[in-house]
Design goal:
- A hairpin with a 2-residue loop joins β8 and β9.
- The chain is rod-shaped and about 165 Å long.
- It has helices at 5-57, 61-74, 98-104, 148-183, 185-195, 213-262, 268-299, 312-322, 324-330, 348-364, 411-415, 425-435, and strands at residues 81-87, 110-115, 122-130, 139-146, 308-311, 333-338, 343-346, 371-379, 382-390, 440-445, 448-456.
- α6 (213-262) runs antiparallel to α7 (268-299), α7 (268-299) runs parallel beside α12 (425-435) and α10 packs antiparallel against α12 (425-435).
- The chain is of the alpha+beta class.
- The strands form three sheets. It has a five-stranded mixed beta sheet, covered by helices on one side. The protein has a four-stranded antiparallel beta sheet with strand order 1-4-3-2, with helices on both faces. The protein has a two-stranded antiparallel ribbon with strand order 5-7.
- Bound molecules: adenosine-5'-triphosphate (ATP) and magnesium ion (MG).
Length: 462
């Protein structure tokens, strides 16, 4: 069953009231019981002392007869108070059901309880011994008060309490339901506002000032999510525009070149030239499309597969070897530094692709004859591979955006139509790092630029 805040609140209110009434009821019940007992004991005591005084003073039969009359008068018709006098002398006996009294009342003098066998009535009793005087032997005087009214009062109290408690619980549940509905109304308002947000109006936000403080957090989180969504949306729109733009140039070149070639009769050699340059443009298009497909897969959270434990320094060397012709041509050297014995779990092809992109950039952005450095640094559960090259310092503002797709620091070069990359190289480095549970980093200062990526040590072998 789905949870309902209203139902939970109502239930909790009800439990609170129940607990409160139970505690108060128990205390009141205890107090009432004690007071009733005290009251009965007072009554017993008064009656006992009264009779004792009369019995103690006289020992003759004449007075005894008068005492019996007195006890008769003091016994109410409903039998709620009773007297008994027990003795060995049959002349000095008094009370109803004496035979049974003899049996049940053999205990010490003082307070007690007894149930009359015939009527079944229960009496709270107080008894005492009175010494012999003249004709009278020692007697035992017992006074009893009926406990039925007492029990009745307590029962009535319990019933009233139960009825009151049930009523209070029902009332509080109804009120609680009503209060919860009112209290939760701002949630409804929030949903209404959220419902009015359109995809066209992504810059809209919930108005936090209109929400109660308790919902401000939720509203803030919601607005945060909207903000991120808007950013992603804008990035996507920008990306689409970039894709169109990137594809337009090679396509325009293709169309232009072909049109020129077709504009007049040409020799086979001239067509061959055209086809050759067309092929270059087509390959360029293919590499852009391939890179974008790769990034799209990485975006969908694809993790690197085919992981093997590899010697990082070895892989770096193998990648550099691939650049040997270009390095020889420009007179550039590459040094490998850092922890050369590091092992890492990686997809080797992806690792080499990422490092190649970094080396390509480093060579492209440094003067011929420069010394590049590839540093291998194990750090906090990951291995960092950093490529440093001397070259123009990149302004701080560009650094966080270098890894964005199609981002190029010097955009004028693009418009000048110079030969340059697509701006996808570092985006791919970032994707490879992400696929390996790693991250990227770019720093540039004092004429040296360092671009680095990491791969997580998951499954790292010593
Ligand atoms: N080592 C570096 N020194 C200076 N700037 C760099 C360096 N590496 C990258 N950049 C800047 O970052 C931008 C993005 O690099 P990225 O590798 O993503 O794209 P690209 O090299 O222009 O194209 P591609 O790599 O797709 O052929 C580059 O255009 C360049 O301006
Ligand atoms: Mg590049």
């Amino acid at each position: 069953m789905r949870r309902s805040i209203t139902a939970r609140l109502v239930l909790m209110f009800a439990l609170c009231v129940l607990a409160l009434f139970a505690v108060i009821g128990a205390v009141l019940y205890g107090v009432l019981g004690r007071e009733l007992t005290r009251h009965q004991n007072d009554e017993l005591n008064t009656n006992l002392q009264n009779m004792r005084y009369s019995i103690e003073r006289f020992g003759d039969l004449e007075h005894w007869a008068r005492l019996q009359v007195k006890m008769d008068t003091l016994t109410p018709a409903d039998g709620s108070v009773r007297f008994w006098v027990l003795s060995d002398d049959p002349r000095f006996l008094y009370g109803k059901g004496l035979d049974e009294m003899e049996r049940v009342n053999q205990g010490e003098a003082g307070h007690g309880m007894l149930t009359l066998p015939i009527s079944g009535r229960t009496y709270r009793t107080l008894s005492m011994r009175i010494g012999a005087l003249a004709e009278r032997p020692p007697v035992r005087l017992i006074v009893g008060v009926d406990t039925a009214p007492f029990e009745h009062t307590l029962r009535a109290f319990l019933v009233a309490l139960a009825v009151l408690t049930l009523g209070a619980v029902a009332l509080v549940m109804a009120l609680g339901w009503w209060i919860a509905r009112i209290g939760l109304r701002p949630l409804q308002r929030m949903s209404e506002e959220a419902r009015s947000l359109q995809p066209r109006t992504l810059s809209q936000r919930l108005q936090l000032e209109r929400l109660p403080v308790e919902l401000e957090d939720l509203g803030g989180a919601f607005n945060g999510a909207l903000g991120r969504l808007e950013e992603a949306w804008q990035q996507l729109e920008g990306f689409n525009a970039d894709v169109a733009h990137e594809l337009r140039t090679p396509l325009a070149n293709l169309i232009g070149g072909t049109q020129v070639a077709l504009s007049r009769p040409r020799s086979a050699a001239e067509f061959q030239d055209t086809l050759q340059s067309n092929l270059e443009e087509l390959e360029r298009l293919r590499s852009i499309v391939n890179d974008m497909l790769f990034l799209a897969r990485a975006d969908q959270g694809e993790a690197a597969t085919g992981l093997t434990s590899a010697d990082v320094a070895h892989e770096v060397e193998m990648t550099i070897e691939f650049f040997e012709p270009l390095l020889d041509e420009t007179g550039t050297t590459v040094a490998i530094e850092g922890e050369l014995r590091t092992q890492a779990t990686m997809n080797i092809a992806l690792f080499r692709r990422a490092l190649s992109n970094l080396l390509q950039n480093a060579i492209a952005h440094s003067e011929p004859g420069s010394r590049l450095v590839v540093a291998i640094t194990p750090q906090a559960g990951a291995t960092w591979i950093a490529v440093t090259n001397p070259g123009k310092t990149i302004a701080e503002a560009h650094l966080p955006r270098l890894f964005d797709r199609f981002y190029r620091v010097d955009s004028s070069r693009r418009d000048a139509g110079e030969i340059h990359g697509h701006g996808l190289g570092l985006a791919i480095v970032k994707a490879v790092a992400t696929m390996h549970g790693g991250a990227t980093r770019a720093t540039s200062a004092n004429g040296a630029t360092t671009i680095a990526f990491s791969i997580a040590d998951a499954g790292r072998t010593p």
